[in-house]
Amino acid sequence: MSHIHWYPGHIAKAQRALKEKLKLVDVILEVLDARIPISSSYGDTKTLLGEKPRIILLNKSDLSDDKENPKWKKYIEEKTGCPCLLTTNQSQKDIKIIIDKILEISKPITDKMVARGLLPRAIRVMVIGMPNVGKSSTINKLIKKSKTKTGAKAGVTRQQQWVRVHDKVELLDTPGIIPMAQPNQEAAIKLACVNSIGENAYDNEYVAGELLKILDKKYEKKVREYYNLENEDVKIENIALKRNWLIKDGKPDVVRCAQFILLNFRDGKIGKITLDEIL
After folding, report:
1. Using an 8 Å Cβ cutoff, are 190 and 36 in contact?
2. Phi-psi region of 156 (alpha: psi -120 to 50; beta: other; left: phi over 0)
3. HEC profile for the chain?
4. Residues forming a β-bridge with 177
5. How many angstroms separate the CA atoms of 210 and 197, rounded?
6. What is the pLDDT of residues 7-28, one digit of tens each?
7. Alpha-carbon distance 156 to 180, whole Å?
8. Rg, C-alpha atoms of the chain
9. pLDDT digit string, tens, across residues 111-163
10. Angle of helix 94-105 relative to helix 107-115, nearest 10 degrees?
11. Are 140 and 171 within 8 A, CB to CB?
């Protein structure tokens, strides 16, 4: 399987569910994976989200390239006109920064309520993004105790409810899943690399091979050092041979090695890496 397969029925269902939730909220927190800021974003965001105020979180920024992070933050803010914050799944430090930014961009909404003689209610916020970018972890962090189901498997939800995370902010405790239609195969491969696509949609050997091509081009020193490759080509077969992972007839075990490479990348073991390039 040398390309990524999409399931149109799933995409249409996700889009309908997201639009229903969007009717309920004032502010959107859109979570992107900092390793693939373009590939993990939805191309036609305005059509999907309308004009609602939006804050973009470049999440997993502890796994992406430290030199690239500020460049991407600037690029996204200039391209979208939305504030962009660097966040991680682990750190609690960004909670206050996120809440402060929500209050800042929602001020016109509160002011409008007051102007109409209404008592300002809490601002309603929803976290959205593609699978496995850290939506549930972001929700849990803001709630400060685990009330949502988290895990690497995408799309785990339950009965939704509002949770007060600040005296002026309410958070929808289930995330909005951005539809996964991605006609660009290069971007689809990167989504598979960060585990944003179900494993049934792609072949590990193909995706790991494509990942190694990107790493060889952008982070040759890191990938060679991590896998102890000197003069050999940066290929799955050579990494398997280095580890003495063999199947019958002394051939390299590429199936095992491909899965190993993808796990290494996802866990940040090869190093801090950003796969996307600023256009």
Report:
1. yes
2. beta
3. CCCCCCCHHHHHHHHHHHHHHHCCCCEEEEEEECCCCCCCCCCCHHHHHCCCCEEEEEECCCCCCCCCHHHHHHHHHHHHCCCEEECCCCCCCHHHHHHHHHHHHCHHHHHHHHHCCCCCCCEEEEEEECCCCCHHHHHHHHHCCCCCCCCCCCCCCCCCCEEEEECCEEEECCCEECCCCCCCHHHHHHHHHCCCCCHHHCCHHHHHHHHHHHHHHHCHHHHHHHHCCCCCCCCHHHHHHHCCCECHHHCECHHHHHHHHHHHHHCCCCCCCCCCCCC
4. 129
5. 15
6. 556 667 777 778 888 888 999 9
7. 16
8. 20
9. 998 999 888 889 999 999 888 899 999 999 999 854 544 444 444 444 578 89
10. 40
11. no
Tokens of 233: 């080509």
Q: What is the pTM of this model?
A: 0.89
Structure tokens at 14: 């996700």
Only one residue has tokens 């959205």, namely: 128
d(C-alpha 261, C-alpha 251), whole Å: 18
Which structure tokens are listed for 113? 């309520």
Report CA torsion sign: 233, 62, 60, 45.
negative
Residues comprising the chain, all counted: 279
What is the distance, to the nearest Å, from the Cα of residue 164 to the centroid of all Cα atoms in its chain? 25
